[in-house]
Amino acid sequence: MPSPTVAEQLVAGSRDLIASEGTGDLSVRRLTEASGRSTMCVYSHFGNRKRLLAEVYRSCAADLTGALAAAGPGFARAYAAYAETAPRHFLFLFAADLDGLGVDPGLRLDLADAVTDLAAASLDGADRDAALAFWLPLHGAVWLDTVQRLAGEPGRFPTAALIGR
């Protein structure tokens, strides 16, 4: 298997930083430290920090949508499992201030479109309204479950039954 490219190393290191620390300090210096690369690599491979973070967002979104696509009718379990195994990536996808990070907030709408389509497919091709009616309450429960776990207060709100645990 070939070694990862510098761009892949930057994305992987940035994902690792978000997974361990969240989105509080995503400076070029911190992103490159986490990637084991120099700051110049960001500019030579992505042009700027914003484009790197957009690629990190797309990478996390691809993980989520890939898991949901593979889950079929197990959409709800797969959605909750992604948030449980990658809680800070989940929050990056759905709660981070993308505009403040310089990332196009439209990426989140693209992700919502993809998740809605996958929810519809998991419901035997239901229409988008039915898919949204299914996904949005699930999303709220998974989000709250994720936030309370990261705050060290799992179970503060009874989300387990809502997300199928």
Question: How would you describe the overall organization of this protein?
Answer:
About 70% of the residues lie in helices and about 0% in strands. With about 160 residues, the chain is mostly helical. The protein has one domain: Tetracycline Repressor, domain 2.
Share of helix, binned: over 70%
Which residues form runs of ≥5 with pLDDT under 50? none
How large, in whole angstroms, is the Cα Rg?
A: 17 Å
Order of helices and strands: HHHHHHHHH
Specify the biggest β-sheet.
none
State the CATH class. Answer: Mainly Alpha
Number of helical stretches of at least 4 residues: 9
Alpha-beta classification: mainly alpha
Strand content: under 5%
Q: Give the full name of the CATH homologous superfamily.
A: Tetracycline Repressor, domain 2
- Mean pLDDT reading: 96
Q: What oligomeric state is this?
A: single chain
InterPro entries: Homeodomain-like_sf (IPR009057), HTH_TetR (IPR001647), Tet_transcr_reg_TetR-rel_C_sf (IPR036271)
Protein name: TetR family transcriptional regulator
Keywords: DNA-binding
Domain HTH tetR-type: 4-64
Describe the structure in brief.
This protein has helices spanning 6-21, 28-35, 39-45, 49-71, 75-85, 87-94, 98-101, 106-122, 128-150. The chain is an all-alpha fold and 165 residues long.
Features:
single chain; 165 residues; mainly alpha; Tetracycline Repressor, domain 2; 71% helix; TetR family transcriptional regulator; Homeodomain-like_sf; Tet_transcr_reg_TetR-rel_C_sf; DNA-binding; HTH_TetR
List the helices and strands and how they pair.
Elements lengths: L5 H16 L6 H8 L3 H7 L3 H23 L3 H11 L1 H8 L3 H4 L4 H17 L5 H23 L15
